[in-house]
Amino acid sequence: MRVAVCDDEExxxxxxxxxxxxxxxxxxxxxxxxxxxxxxxxxxxxNPYGVIFLDIEMPSMDGITLAKKLRQRSExxxxxxxxxxxxxxxxxxxxxxxRYLTKPIREDKLREVLxxxxxxxxxxxxxxxxxxxxxxxxxxxxxxxFEAQNQYVMIYLRGEEHLVRANxxxxxxxxRDDGFFRIHRGYLISLAKVKKIVKSEVIMENGASLPVSRSxxxxxxxxxxxxxxxxxx
Length: 233
Description:
Layout: E1 2-6, H1 10-23, E2 30-34, H2 37-46, E3 51-55, H3 63-73, E4 78-83, H4 89-92, E5 99-102, H5 107-124, E6 126-131, E7 134-139, E8 143-149, E9 152-157, E10 160-165, H6 168-174, E11 180-184, E12 187-190, E13 194-198, E14 201-204, E15 209-211, H7 214-231
Parallel strand pairs: 1-2, 1-3, 3-4, 4-5
Antiparallel strand pairs: 6-7, 8-9, 8-12, 9-10, 11-12, 13-14, 14-15
Helix pairs in contact: 2-3
């Protein structure tokens, strides 16, 4: 997930960046910071963000004006306002703001916002695959794990399986922001579907026991703890 923070005060830029790094320290979350709106708009045009934290009170372009320009570009980007003055809340409805966070930012409130965005993104994400001559759409939220089988990949979902001719690395890249982790050369799993870790294996929701390579075990635990911590809010 790509996140932007636009605030003319460096102290708040760094506070949010550090909190996001703490919450998702081993997940694929990229945070870019901006001091004014023009540069943010230029970057957004080149490569849109999933969620943007905007300070309302900025000298060159205030947050409400900036949000309106962002809405002209995208109806899907999540906009979160940063402010010390809640009376601005009514104006936020004009641009369909997700939420207001008051300064200084509380970690638990930031977690709530990020969890909501992650859940929404995953819930609506789909994979297009070709299996047995059919084009199928799979909900990412239903996928348990992927297993490499020579030149094919078996996709395990709740109650169904699909064998596709594909490269595991392609799925790893597509699902980089959706809570998936490569535990082994032959397995890519959904962290949300992990039941427990036993020694060097993960037990999935469907009871499958999958091997974790020694080099990935520590990173898996860190990623899983970060994921679960985020889910708790």
